[in-house]
Amino acid sequence: MSGFFITFEGPEKSGKSTQARLLERYLTKKGFSCLFIREPGSTSIGEKIRRILLDKRNTHLEHTTEMLLYMAARSQIVKEIINPALQQNKVVICDRFLDSTIAYQGYGLGMDRALIRTIGAFATERISPGITLLLDMSKSDSSFKKTANKDRIELRSRRFHDRVRKGYFCLAKQYPRRIKIVRVAKTILATQKEIRRIIDTCLLKKS
Question: How far apart are CA 107 and CA 164, in angstroms?
Fold first, then answer.
């Protein structure tokens, strides 16, 4: 692979999509060929799976089914978008990837994390991000509580979301060279400034 793969991770409403799109514009202005995608989604099949996963009416979706649906959408996006883009020397910026499944279904739901990793390696064809930006808000942040029209995942208990957050920190400790924790600042631009500093360093090393 000749391109560069960047992923954004973090708990609900941490600003991943906003920061990812700002980074895409920044790198495009610097002359990189960039592509922003989201998980699950960004493919016709992936978007259909996304609707199933986030539909709050699907209250009886089994945990195993949930995990496998995320993997199915991931397999599709790797084959259809990520692999070809990296081969074309593009910078791929993805809102969530395999770390999300480990954090949400592994730590959050208590599923077998070793099994998730095994299935994940198969679904992703062992593609791994060059850098992962983990956005973290203060635990006392109340913006999530105020969110209206929450989806099926967002409606889960605060304890579930606390386990997810702790899971992300565990992953960051396991992969400190890849996963960089970015504390969400008071302003979007302040957070973006730190993200750009990290990415500039990574891309300079790559070149």
Answer: 6
3-state secondary structure string, 72-111?
Answer: HHHHHHHHHHHHHHHHCCCEEEEECCHHHHHHHHHHHCCC
Task: Give the whole-angstrom CA distance, residue 5 versus residue 54.
Answer: 25
**What digits encode the pLDDT tens for the residues 168-193?**
999 999 999 999 999 999 999 999 99
Instruction: For residue 100, give both structure tokens.
Output: 């999300």
Phi, psi of 104 (to 5 degrees): -80, -55
DSSP 155: T
Helix (H) or strand (E) holding 34: strand 34-38
pLDDT digits (tens, 9 = 90+) for 130-172: 999 999 987 545 455 566 789 999 999 999 999 999 999 999 9
Percentage of the chain exceeding pLDDT 70: 93
Q: Which residue has the tokens 């978007």?
A: 47
Q: Distances in Å between the alpha carbon of 143 and those of 5, 13, 138? A: 30, 8, 11
Q: What share of the chain is helix, strand, coil (3-state, %, to 5)?
A: 55, 15, 35
**C-alpha dist (Å) from residue 2 to 61, 83, 185:** 39, 10, 33
**What is this structure's pTM?**
0.94
User: In angstroms, rounded to a whole number, what is the distance separating the alpha carbons of residues 81 and 77?
Assistant: 5
